Amino acid sequence: MDRLQKNYGFTLAETLITLVIIGVVAAITIPSLVKNYNEKAWGTAKDVFEKRLEVAAKQLNTEEKLSGYNSTMDFVNELKKKIKITNVCDSNNLSKCFESTILTADGQEVDATSLKTSAKLAKEDWGTETVGVQFANGINALIAYNPQTDQQPFNNQFSATEASMAILYDVSGHKNPNTLGKDVNQNANVKKLGCMIKKDLVGGMCISQILAPGTGYSPMTLEECNQAVSDGELGIQACYYSSDYWAGAVKACGGINNMPTMTQLGELATYVYNHDSTIGAQQDVSGLPLDTAKASQFLSASPSSTAFYVWSGQEGSGYIAYNRLFGSTHTGLNSGNRSSNLTLAVCLDH
């Protein structure tokens, strides 16, 4: 008697269930794997590029060709003799070499085409233009040159890239995500891009930098201040006879127009004290506890751990400039001595 033969296999339903499970597992794991791969690739590209750029700059330093340029374009034309560059874009055509929009880590948009000058890209106003550059390895960059570069041809420890340029670069070229801290990176000379606090929280102000006196910005000497008055670019009208911290704050922010008005400092006070109505430019308020979480970025830069002062762009005379005190329970207008080394420089981006 013949035995009945059985066919072993999967039913259609079993096959479909298996495929669904595989799809769910893939949907969960693949994005994570891709993210990790991208981050590792970006990190490797960043390390390799920075090393190559450092070598090129140090070669210029050794050959005494790192300093002496009056424009970024002149510097880039010399730099491309040491590292291969395929395209250079002047300050009016930055988007041809670099993405027009950059995202900060918290998703805020920065218009890269607005970074046309060193005053916008770099920490200080070097008086040069920003140039777009595309390197042969696919990296795109914005570069501003520091004409005060002090080359040291016999010093092998000299950090040539930190001294000579501000560079913002995208290791993925024109590909997304164009996000700072991911595929977009910068050296120490590039000012903080984007708003440190969301604009809609502080009366529409975009605070780009909070600088501590002495470390974040330096006072001007009388000679430096008089030269700034003569040049007329920063908006300073008079000078203090000694260390002028207010003038130094103005210089660090790139002019009085990049510093908060007294009205804006009142709006900042409204934010950090959780006030239910706007604190005006001239208004003093007591009995309000400072929200230390909202004020944390200011307190961390302040010489005091419980209070901070902020310069305004309003000059009183050669001896005073106006600022606002943000105390633990009190805030108010001050006509501060310009030699005060306790007052923060808060820079705005327009």
SSE string: HHEEEHEEHEEEHHHEHEEEE
Quaternary state of this entry equals single chain
* Total number of strands: 13
Number of helices: 8
Structural class call reads alpha+beta
Based on the model shown, name its key terms.
single chain, 350 residues, alpha+beta, 2 domains, six-stranded mixed beta sheet, five-stranded antiparallel beta sheet, 8 helices, flat
Description:
- There is one protein chain.
- The protein is α+β, with helices and mostly antiparallel strands and 350 residues long.
- It folds into two domains: 69-191, no CATH class; 199-348, no CATH class.
- Helix content is 30%, strand content 19%.
- It is built from eight helices and 13 strands.
- The protein has helices at residues 12-62, 72-79, 118-121, 160-164, 222-231, 245-253, 262-272, 296-301; strands at 85-89, 101-103, 109-111, 130-135, 140-145, 165-170, 184-186, 207-211, 285-286, 308-315, 320-326, 330-337, 343-348.
- A six-stranded mixed β-sheet has the order 8-13-10-11-12-9, with helices on both faces.
- The longest helix is centred in the N-terminal third of the chain and has 51 residues, at 12-62.
- The protein is flat.
- The termini are far apart.
SSE diagram, text form:
Elements: H1 12-62, H2 72-79, E1 85-89, E2 101-103, E3 109-111, H3 118-121, E4 130-135, E5 140-145, H4 160-164, E6 165-170, E7 184-186, E8 207-211, H5 222-231, H6 245-253, H7 262-272, E9 285-286, H8 296-301, E10 308-315, E11 320-326, E12 330-337, E13 343-348
Parallel strand pairs: 10-13
Antiparallel strand pairs: 1-4, 2-3, 4-5, 5-6, 6-7, 8-13, 9-12, 10-11, 11-12
